[in-house]
Amino acid sequence: MNQDKHVAADEPEKAWLDFARRHKAEGGFDSKESRYNFKGNRWVIKKEGQFEIQFNWNVLFSRQSSSGVKICTDFLFPINFSGELKLEIYPNDFFTSLLLLINSNKVKIGDVELDRKFIFVTNKSELIEAIVPEMKNVNSICSGEDFIVQIEGEKIGIEGKRILIQVNELLKEEAIIEAFYNLGAAMQQKINKVF
Predict the structure, then answer these.
(1) CB 97 within 8 A of CB 75
(2) Does the N terminus or the C terminus of the chain have fewer Cβ atoms within 10 A?
(3) How does 43-80 read in b/e, with b if 16+ C-beta sit within 10 Å?
(4) What tens digit of pLDDT does each residue of 68-88 get?
(5) Contact criterion met (CB below 8 Å) for 183 and 134
(6) How far is CA 153 from CA 57, 82, 150, 167, in A?
(7) In Å, how far from its chain's centre is CA 193?
(8) Which range of residues forms the domain containing residue 187?
(9) Element (H or E) spanning 118, and its range?
């Protein structure tokens, strides 16, 4: 994170609790044994049926090809959509550009800075157009954070579909948490109202 631009919270829990209270949501450790210095820590803010934010640090994970430690903040928003909906936002780096080189669903949103910094993939361009203000806000306040946005669904074994915004660091500042929350909420609202 760009430390000269932001002042980190003394205790992340304070920022997380303040966010939870402001949004009338529940917040707390995922398990009573969790503390900042133990493995498998997760602090969750949840408003049933509307959103969940998971602050993960020292979480051991294991996949078929790799295992290690994960430090990230996941924003999850359930959506009501029965058709096929593709939405992905990635940082525009060499590796991602190479992987998505032949993807026919890549779109430009018409904002020079956002189009330079991110790769947008969707089959519903009107969804991208609806989130441009939130993307600009995230870009201006969170210039150093690396994140992806995806629609998840039955393919990964979860019930229903949801928006996942995964930020590859432990967010500790309310303004940044709010910016990513607003991005996910805008996508959720657009999908649930229009599609």
Answers:
(1) no
(2) C
(3) bbbbeeeebbbbbbbbbeeeeeeeeeeeebbbbbbbbe
(4) 667 899 999 999 887 788 888
(5) yes
(6) 25, 10, 10, 19
(7) 21
(8) 12-194
(9) strand 118-122
Please state, in angstroms and rounded to a whole number, the distance separating the CA atoms of residues 27 and 67: 28
Residues 6+ apart with CB under 8 A from 148: 88, 89, 90, 91, 164, 165, 166
Note whether residue 5 is domain-resident.
no
d(CA 171, CA 38): 18
The tokens describing 132, both together, are 């441009």
DSSP state of 155: G
Q: Is residue 138 part of a domain?
A: yes
Average pLDDT, the chain: 80
Residue 4 lies in a domain: no
Q: Structural domain tally of the chain?
A: 1
pLDDT tens profile 143-159: 666 899 998 875 544 56
- Tell the burial category of 96 from Cβ atoms under 10 Å away from its Cβ (0-12, 13-18, 19+): middle
What tokens does 172 get?
């500790």
Residue 81 lies in a domain: yes
Amino acid at 63: R
